Amino acid sequence: MNIERTGHRYIDIASGKTLDTWFPRSNKAIARSCLAQKVGLIKSEFIEVEIDSDAAPVSTEDVYLRLHLLSECQVKPHDINLDGMFGLLPNVAWTSAGPVMPAMIEELRGLIAEEYVQLSVTSIDKFPRMTDYVIPEGVRIGDADRVRLGAHLASGTTVMHEGFVNFNAGTLGCSMVEGRISAGVVVADGSDIGGGASIMGTLSGGGKQVISIGKKSLLGANAGLGISLGDECIVESGLYLTAGSKVKTPEGEIVSARELSGRSGLLYRRHSQTGAIEAIAINAGLWGGLNNTLHNNA
Description:
This protein is 8% helix and 30% strand.
C-alpha cells in the first residue's frame, strides 16, 4: 500500500542528518520552531514523503511516517514493514530546546544562555516520546516519557504512570496498562497488564516470537510472560512464565509452557505448597474484568 503525507523535518546543520519528521494528521504544511533552530544548530523544512508500507523503509523520514501511522492507529502492529529501521534512525538528544545531536548539548547550553531558560534533556534515544508527535483519541497516559512514538494505543486504553509501551506494540481495545508492553507485543480488548508486569518482546537477543494477549485476560502484578495468552486467561501475581517453564496442564500432563501458548481459559499459578506451576481451566469472571468508568477517556 502506498501512502503519501506532508511532513516537517528538523535537520542537523553540521552533519546534514535528519533528526526527526512530524506528520500532522491533517496532512497540512504546519511548521514548528524551537530554540535549537533559532541559534543555528538545526534547520527545518517541509517534505513530501511517499512510502510503500509493504516494503522496507529507505530513510529516516520514511521510518517516522510509519511510526506516526502506528500511533494514529491507521495500521496495527506487524501490519507495516519496519525491517532495518534502526539503521535509519540517528541517536538524538531530545531536549526542551528541540532535538539535537548528542555531541551538541554543551554548545546548545551556551548558545541559549541569553534566553534565560533551563535546558532539560528528556532522553538520548532513537525514538522520541509519542505525545510530542501524535495525540491518540480516547486515551489516558500518566507519564508520556514511557510511551514511544510507534506505540499503538486504541481508544479506551489507560496507561498508568508505571506503564510502558514500546513501538510496534500496544493495545487493540480498552485496556489497563500498569506494566510493560515490549516491542512487538499486542494486547486485545478488555485485558489488564498489572503493575510491574513484564512481557517479552522481539528485540532482546534477536527474538522473533511475537507474543500476544487475548481478550479479557489479566497479567498479575509483577508477573512475567514469555508465551501468548488466549482469551480469558490469568497469570497470578509474581509468576514469571517463560516458554520453557514446566506446567501441569488441566489434563494432568507436564509440558513446556510453549505448548499452551495461545490457549484460552487458563489460570497460571504456583502451587502454594509445592511451588510447581499449574494451569487450571477458568473463565475471566474470576477477576471481574476492567472497570469501564476508568476507561471512559472522552
